[in-house]
């Protein structure tokens, strides 16, 4: 029997990373390495405006990054939040996951750790991101618009041929966020969770709402009870979205990817949401999921036209 491997990730921006990671897994690579390299690709691409280099800045035009890494075999976790001027926060998070203590570092502490451990210091604010920030400030002043926009975390889950699993997240967070604001992405149980004996889940969307439900851990526990990843993720999103609407009058955007330890995958969402999957039996592919009026989720393969239009849109001049 051929050993199963698989990778699932949030958003179209993860496509090239998933293709890279899938090739590593296909050739017997470890899930931890495949995830780190895949996320680094997303972090390094300057046109992805919600992750890494080129990520949109906070209210003071500073790029503050959050990232997390979790190993499903040992349950080891490493995370950084509000870190500035360091390339590839996912690599810093992964290194922290090897430590027994001090595994979640923020701000100046995270930067000091990165410096002492030889990580690359780099100005993460691109000219393009700065121009986007300047335009938003002008719009806020002239049109009285809400400053907050954009919160697309790249989340990835991987299963390798040794039946080990890992999960990773990376984001620049909410555009125009308050200095020091941290969402769900680096928070265990909210933004991510993985356990070799069950599977993994990771969330993207409005972190302030996702944190209220610890949704990634919720999905993993549902899978533990026997639910398929698709059922576990969608029920978790639906039920908690309804809870938020009852308690607070409104539910923010929430999307979750999930994969169990057999390589079966699923997603849950309350908005239109793109994601990427590559497995032993499926070539790396981008999908578009859309909630329907009857409560079901329509999932279709992204067309070549969509992929071309997406690339043109993100690279369009400002």
UniProtKB/TrEMBL annotation:
Gene Ontology terms for molecular function? hydrolase activity, acting on carbon-nitrogen (but not peptide) bonds, in linear amides
Query: Entry's Pfam families?
Result: Asparaginase_2 (PF01112)
Show the GO cellular component annotation of the record: cytoplasm
Residues that hold substrate according to the record:
181-184, 204-207
| Catalytic residue list | 153 (nucleophile)
Q: Where is this site: Cleavage?
A: 152-153
Which CDD domains does the entry mention? Glycosylasparaginase
The record's annotation in InterPro entries points to:
Ntn_hydrolases_N, Peptidase_T2
PANTHER family attached to this UniProt entry: L-ASPARAGINASE, N(4)-(BETA-N-ACETYLGLUCOSAMINYL)-L-ASPARAGINASE
Task: Write the protein's name.
Answer: N(4)-(Beta-N-acetylglucosaminyl)-L-asparaginase
């Amino acid at each position: 029997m051929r050993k199963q491997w698989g990778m699932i990730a949030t958003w179209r921006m993860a496509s090239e990373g998933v293709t890279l990671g899938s090739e590593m897994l296909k050739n017997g690579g470890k899930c931890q390495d495949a995830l780190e390299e895949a996320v680094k690709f997303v972090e390094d691409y300057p046109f992805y405006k919600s992750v890494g280099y080129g990520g949109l800045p906070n209210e003071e035009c500073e790029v503050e990054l959050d990232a997390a890494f979790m190993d499903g075999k040992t349950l080891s976790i490493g995370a950084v939040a509000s870190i500035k001027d360091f390339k590839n926060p996912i690599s810093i998070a992964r290194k922290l996951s090897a430590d027994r203590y001090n595994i979640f570092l923020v701000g100046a502490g995270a930067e000091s750790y990165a410096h002492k451990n030889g990580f690359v210091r780099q100005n993460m604010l691109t000219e393009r991101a700065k121009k986007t920030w300047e335009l938003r400030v002008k719009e806020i002043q002239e049109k009285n618009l809400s400053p907050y926009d954009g919160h697309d975390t790249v989340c990835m889950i991987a299963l390798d041929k040794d039946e080990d699993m890992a999960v990773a997240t990376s984001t620049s967070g909410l555009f125009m966020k308050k200095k020091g604001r941290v969402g769900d992405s680096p928070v265990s149980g909210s933004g991510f969770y993985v356990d070799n004996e069950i599977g993994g889940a990771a969330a993207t969307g409005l972190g302030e709402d996702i944190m209220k439900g610890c949704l990634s851990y919720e999905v993993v526990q549902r899978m533990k009870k026997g639910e398929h990843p698709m059922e576990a993720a969608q029920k978790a999103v639906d039920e908690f979205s309804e809870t938020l609407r009852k308690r607070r009058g409104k539910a923010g955007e929430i999307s979750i990817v999930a994969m169990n330890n057999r390589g079966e995958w699923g997603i849950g969402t309350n908005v239109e949401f793109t994601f990427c999957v590559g497995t032993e039996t499926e070539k790396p592919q981008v999908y578009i999921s859309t909630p329907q009026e009857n409560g079901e989720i329509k999932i279709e393969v992204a067309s070549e036209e969509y992929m071309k239009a997406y690339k043109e849109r993100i690279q369009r001049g400002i």
